[in-house]
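Recall that a protein's primary structure is simply its ordered list of amino acids. Everything else, from secondary elements to tertiary packing, is in principle encoded there. The following example makes that idea concrete.
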Amino acid sequence: MILKEGESVLDIYEVDRFLGEGSFAEVYRVNHKYLGRQALKVFKAIETDILEIKRKLEEAVILSKIGHPNIIRVYDAGILKTSEGQRGYFTMEYISGGTLDSWIVSHEFKRVSIKDTINIVQQICMGLSVSHKKKPPIIHRDIKPQNILVNEDIDGLRIKISDFGLAKEVNPLTLLASAKGTPVYKAPECLNDNMDSCAGDVWAIGVIFYILVTRKFPFPIESRDDLSSNIWQKYPLIPPSEYNVRIDDELEEIILKALEIKPEERYQNAMVMLKDITRWKNKYQNTT
């Protein structure tokens, strides 16, 4: 690990504990001298080029541009000098509840209630709507339960979208960007043509939606190698109502539209999907 428990960082943060790591960075819970608990993300690579550190901090820049209650807030960013060399870092709000992935696992073999499912998906759409509305739009490119943080308080579930490390502004003319992210949450066109879009983010929301109501993936994709078997034709999508009788026709239509194979037939962005989810929620407020 780059940092140690109890270590002082920049004379203003004290490392509380290690939270986890990805391919490029480690994340710690720290105590700010004046502001309390925060999360500190430190990049693993040692850099001598300041421009390269700035490039790695683009995630923090993107987060600072968006600003929404359903997107993780960034507080500070800069260069951290360690015994091995200098690294980029940024601090963000700390969410104690963990990831949506862990939250789903905590339900063991029980399906998540329709009420909680709608609440979660609606908040994901609300956060992404802000980035999709930007001119040009900002697409996340790696929406998955591991990048969704969940907190439960007296007012219910609170969702925060995190890890914008792969986020990218799309080409303003084509509204496309190169595809990145986790294959099982990627839309067919992203994997086949290596191009991503707001509709690609919507597909990922649809996959999460499907998992929440069925506890199954809509398609058995484990890696890009599975595409050689033309998996979307080999394994047609089973309507979620066949697994969960609580799914009515209108809700099923929303889920299936988010998972349309052809991107032009899918919700084009999170704003359009949000309208249908909100309309359904307002109509069936007491559904459990």
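The chain has two domains: 8-93, 100-283. Residues 170-176 have pLDDT under 50 and may be disordered.
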